[in-house]
């Protein structure tokens, strides 16, 4: 199995060096680039084409949410893993809505970052437990509700999403096409008033549509 190629985007040299040291100790992870300024980020990613971008949520002079949206558009194969000192709602919801695949806090246990890199590189999602609490509170605060009940098939898709299955895997299990799964996912997002798979699953758990 090939190594997971990672680019680090962090303006603090000490933090960046510590993260690089942590990740390079793993036999399946290699740090292929480091970025200290947001302006250079896109150029580095287009040149190196890593599997995962570990992105600081707060870099001076850098609008990270807009950058995440641009990265998703220009480098859709790069998985964005946010590494942040903040678990404030605006950071979490903004970045996940912009397409980030994961969100880890800087004071989480080091092994959590390693696990998160592997998870998002494999096409999954990773959310720090404390960040998950923020998302649940966000859903509760906004009092989102599904104006139209989910169909039985949409519930099947939602439950498989909650187990971490990707669209192709859901299609295989339900014996439907991948495009049909995508249509169901879009419908679920619309009915629940969410923008990401993580938000959909958290909404469903909070409102007891599915069990954790």
Q: Which regions are unreliable across 5 or more consecutive residues at pLDDT < 50?
A: none
Can you tell me the CATH topology of the largest domain?
A: Rossmann fold
Calculate Rg over CA atoms: 17 Å
What is the CATH class of the largest domain?
Alpha Beta
CA-to-CA gap between the ends?
Answer: 31 Å
Shape: globular
The tally of beta strands, per DSSP, is 6
Features of the shown structure:
2 domains, Rossmann fold, alpha/beta, 212 residues, globular
Quick overview:
It contains ten helices and six strands. The protein has 212 residues and is α/β, with parallel strands linked by helices.
List the helices and strands and how they pair.
Elements: E1 4-9, H1 13-24, E2 29-35, H2 41-48, E3 52-56, H3 64-74, E4 79-84, H4 89-97, E5 102-105, H5 110-121, E6 126-127, H6 129-142, H7 152-162, H8 167-174, H9 178-192, H10 197-206
Parallel strand pairs: 1-2, 1-3, 3-4, 4-5, 5-6
Helix pairs in contact: 6-10, 7-9, 7-10, 8-9
């Amino acid at each position: 199995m090939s190594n997971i190629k990672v680019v680090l985007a962090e303006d603090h040299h000490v933090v960046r060096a510590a993260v690089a040291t942590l990740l390079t100790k793993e036999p399946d992870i290699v740090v292929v680039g480091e970025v200290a300024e947001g302006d250079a980020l896109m150029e580095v990613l287009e040149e190196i084409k890593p599997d995962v971008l570990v992105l600081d949520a707060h870099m001076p002079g850098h609008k990270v949410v807009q950058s995440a949206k641009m990265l998703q558009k220009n480098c859709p194969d790069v998985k964005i893993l946010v590494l942040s000192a903040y678990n404030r709602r605006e950071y979490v919801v903004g970045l996940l809505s912009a397409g980030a695949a994961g969100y880890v806090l800087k004071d989480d246990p080091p092994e959590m970052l390693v696990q998160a890199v592997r998870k998002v590189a494999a096409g999954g999602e990773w959310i720090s437990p404390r960040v998950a609490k923020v998302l649940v509170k966000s859903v509760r605060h906004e009092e989102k509700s599904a104006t139209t009940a989910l169909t039985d098939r949409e519930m099947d898709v939602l439950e498989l999403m909650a187990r971490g299955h990707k669209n192709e895997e859901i299609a295989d299990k339900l014996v439907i096409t991948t495009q049909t799964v995508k249509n169901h996912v879009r419908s679920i997002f619309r009915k629940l008033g969410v923008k990401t798979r993580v938000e959909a699953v958290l909404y469903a758990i909070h409102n007891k549509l599915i069990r954790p």
